[in-house]
Amino acid sequence: MATLKEKTVAEYVTENIKTAHIFKKHGIDFCCGGNISVEKACLKNNVNQLILKKELSEVDIVKDIIEDYDKWELDFLMIYIENVHHTYIKENLPLISQYANKVAKVHGHHYIEVTEVNMLFHEVANELIGHLQKEEQILFPFIKQLVIAKKEGSNTVTPPFGTVNNPIQMMEHEHENTGNVFKQIAKLTNNYMPPEGACNTFKALYAKLDEFEQDLHKHIHLENNILHSKALKLEQEINRQI
């Protein structure tokens, strides 16, 4: 069990994104709460370590090049995050909003949980819109400056917010809040399982919410565990040259 004791959940997923679904299946957070050892995560979530170790070892160890995010340059990683995950959020928020409003209006009197789901989703949707703007207009442009400074051997990067750690801490706090809201939504929807006899809109809402949360987990993992971590190290490296 040495590996499970020494290695964090985030490190497993960083090395092989395909392990993410194993942790998700067992209810282990690999995003905001991924910086604890797998052993501790098992104890916290009452997961059998032997079973988890076996499943992790059986994950296909041959990773697609496109999924080896840990080896990507930070500027390319940010382009990927914006084009894939930010675009996904922007395109799907309006659609899910329509589904949630309709299901709450039509079925809220009988399935009271969908009214709360509707409220929670719109709450987190509004927060996500502002969150993406802060990343695209403040954090990502500064990380790009750090990348350029490193390539050019410059040490004159002076952010208005003191250090890159300040916006990173804010972004990760918002990630945690968003993750907590989706945990509530997952619980209210019985892990996105529509009731028997549910109409197609009801089913579509739950399917989209499930898909959205899965994309969000991967999105947060790329930022918290790879982008932010490397940006902090890059800033420290540049500052040491001053």
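^ that was protein a. below is b, sequence first then the tokens
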Amino acid sequence: MTIASSSPPSRLPTGGAAEASSMTGTPQGVSGEDRGDGRLAALFIAPALLGFLVFLLWPTLRGIYLSFTRFNLLTPAEWVGLDNYVRMVNDPIFWDSLGVTVEYVAINIGVQTLAALAMAVLLQRLTQSAMLRGIVLTPYLMSNVVAGLVWLWILDTQLGIGNEIISGLGVDRVPFLADETWAIPTIALINVWRHVGYTALLLFAGLQAIPNDMYEAARVDGASEWRMFWRITMPLLRPVLAVVLIMTVIGSFQVFDTVAVTTAGGPANATNVLQYYIYGSAFGRFQFGYASAMSVALLVVLSAITILQYRLTRAGRTDLG
């Protein structure tokens, strides 16, 4: 009997791939195509990153530094520690401005959210017209300054067409922007008019992500439109609604231009919102250190509100799937 001899299987050197990659200069597991994609991605990201560093990060860090100094543009910044923050805590105008801002935010967010939600549901349930969506968005295409000036003319106590209509109905003219009681609600509603279409379209996009099968199953079970709204629409729209609320709250706390062109903080500081007070302190009285301290305080307040909203509304979780 002849026994065929067989040679043992050959073994490849374990360091061959590493040696080859070191010889070619290519990291192990990374192809030239991957490196090209990474460079292309870095090229596209670079302008946005540069803008972030120059126009956001650096001004923020510079503002935080200036909040601990006395600075008026004419002399070098003088370090004063926490003096600006102590002054802010004891400043009644600061607290009054913060209260006015909170009043504005409450009216603006409450009315805008309800109106935008109603518009979004109607857009989804009654029509799919792209033209109608464009009409809804039209006021948002107008700048806040132009919107403020237009409504300033419309609501003028003596010559405004709005007060002319009110007077024609036999009702006394209303000093919408000249009365302490009416001024902030009027400014809030002006901004609601401008932003509600954009907010409605954001919510409309969220509604489009809800499967129609759920509504059809609910109709088969005899559910009414109102019951489907509360049992299906609102729970599944919650993540989108939470993000929209976070965005609108942050934007509302930063109201400035509408106030600047309509009331300039009056009458009697009734519309002296925090952003307008910061602007007056910096560019009216050249107290850049104190203005920076108030800006940092606003940043802290907005950060706290955002974190609280995110946690309470569970914005990062969805009930779909």
